[in-house]
Design a protein that fits this description.
Blueprint lengths: L13 H4 L8 H6 L8 H15 L2 H10 L5 H23 L5 E3 L3 H10 L6 H21 L2 H7 L2 H22 L3 E4 L3 E4 L4 H18 L5 H19 L34 H26 L11 H18 L4 E3 L4 H5 L5 H11 L6 H4 L4 H15 L11 H17 L2 H18 L8 H17 L1
Helix pairs in contact: 3-15, 4-5, 4-6, 5-13, 5-15, 6-7, 7-12, 7-13, 9-17, 9-18, 9-19, 10-11, 10-17, 11-17, 12-13, 12-20, 18-19, 19-20
Length: 459
């Protein structure tokens, strides 16, 4: 989510502090379950908890990608397959209890900035996803994360997460009809019709479940809103809201290998590729750091455990997502739900991966979910992603101003890329005006130039 932030990452569980019973067999030996202070039973329960917390992506990701023209059933199949493969790799190779799936923010960037905003075909946009994954893989293999981290000021990193959160919330409100176009004021409140009332009830119900700490609160909210929408459609004649198309069907792989890899190799598309790379890279890094702190998943040097392997899995997950027909995959902060249940090893991720597989055959059932049912989840994901706003030093105007531009321009321009571009350029220009040349790292110079090229070519 993405870099999605959630309170799950800060929860603790009594089960993590209990003395676990030894876990027998090859699972214990391969994943070092007992040595990590866990048990097979605890790892399985942790995997279920994380899956419930993050499974909303099975419905929400296809709903967003279908706006870009990718068939819902094809996007759903791609979502399930990449979530299965990447989470399995995270468990078996990196041996960390982390969910990897198509990320919130990345799917919004793909659909609303690249396809609907810049006019790329979804096949070319998938090509941009592929090349960003290739660059991510190179960075992960050569372990250059420290240099990149030092180049981008923390205020801008936090701001980008917050801006994407506001953008996702705006999309959710628009999809629900809560916000509509208005020629006089640009946007305004939609008509207070049964559809809007249903959305609002679903939003409040989902928020209450999140507050109460229910596992799977977002997916439960989607289910509740869908159930409310069914009788509403029948009573008020809007039966298109929930249309029954059957229970199960074979997977739809019609979007597989539709990626236009060569078509994405244009200078004008480099800023898009860079923004995808930047967003995914820092999402992954911040997620690993947050989870390592919350559950002490650290190595002997105090760094996140198996960080290089985890980043490599994330990178290759992003790269293979494009040929499968979906936006980039990334680590989910919702993994904190399983960590809070005591998950400490890759066995948790393996359980998560296996739980995705049955949904490969349920696209007709899941396609009945209307837009007003996924909208509450989008709004609340946006809320979770706003958490880093408190970490921005608003008292230092030279840091706060670029951060503010990045945050506010993403929803107002309906473009994640433009928000990042103006944030980076304003940071460089302000530092130049103040004579603080040493505070502008080479990566920031490159970022500002790419941002300028994008703005010129976009006109």
């Amino acid at each position: 989510m993405t870099q999605s932030s959630s309170s799950y990452a800060t929860q603790s569980s009594a089960s993590a502090n209990e003395s676990p019973s030894p876990s027998p067999g090859w699972l214990d030996r391969y994943f070092n379950v007992s040595r990590r202070g866990s048990s097979v039973k605890t790892e399985v329960l942790a995997g279920i908890a994380t899956f419930l917390a993050g499974m909303y992506i099975i419905v929400v990701n296809p709903a967003i990608l279908s706006d870009a023209g990718i068939p819902f059933s094809a996007a759903l199949s791609a979502t399930v397959v990449i979530s299965f493969l990447s989470s399995l790799a995270m468990g078996l190779y990196a041996r960390n209890p982390i969910l990897v799936a198509p990320g919130m923010g990345m799917n919004a960037l793909f659909t609303y900035t690249l396809v609907l905003g810049a006019g790329l075909s979804w096949e070319v946009a998938l090509g941009c996803v592929f090349w960003s994954g290739v660059m991510f893989a190179i960075l992960a293999m050569f372990n250059v994360r420290e240099a990149i981290i030092e180049a981008i000021p923390p205020s801008l990193r936090y701001a980008i997460t917050c801006g994407i959160g506001l953008f996702i919330t705006f999309i959710g409100l628009k999809n629900a009809g809560f916000i509509v176009a208005n020629p006089a004021t640009l946007v305004s409140l939609g008509n207070l019709d049964p559809s809007l009332v249903t959305f609002f009830i679903g939003l409040v119900a989902t928020a209450v479940m999140v507050i109460r700490g229910y596992n799977g609160a977002l997916i439960l909210g989607i289910a509740v809103t869908t159930l409310l929408a069914a009788p509403m459609g029948r009573l008020w004649g809007e039966d298109v809201l929930v249309a029954w198309n059957g229970l199960a069907a074979l997977p739809d792989f019609s979007a597989v290998w539709k990626v236009d890899i060569l078509g994405a190799l244009k200078v004008a598309y480099l800023p898009f590729i860079f923004v995808m790379l930047f967003t995914n890279f820092f999402d992954a890094l911040s997620c690993f750091m947050a989870l390592s702190e919350s559950a002490n998943l650290k190595d002997a040097n105090g760094n996140p455990r198996n960080l290089k392997r985890s980043m490599t899995v994330d990178a290759f997950a992003s790269m293979i997502a494009a040929p499968l027909g979906t936006s980039a995959a990334q680590t989910f902060i919702e993994s904190g739900a399983g960590v809070a249940q005591g998950g400490r090893t890759g066995l948790t991720a393996v359980v998560i991966a296996l739980l995705f597989l049955p949904f490969l055959f349920l696209s007709p059932l899941l396609s009945l979910v209307p837009g007003i049912a996924t909208a509450p989840a989008l709004v609340l994901v946006g809320l979770f992603m706003m958490a880093p706003v408190t970490r921005i030093d608003w008292s230092r105007f030279e840091e706060a101003f670029p951060a503010f531009l990045a945050i506010i321009l993403m929803p107002l321009t309906y473009s994640i890329t433009l928000g990042i571009a103006f944030g980076f350029m304003s940071f460089v220009l302000i530092k130049l005006a103040l004579g603080k040349f040493s505070e502008i790292k080479p990566a920031m110079w490159v970022s500002a130039v790419l941002a300028g090229v994008m703005l010129v070519t976009a006109q």
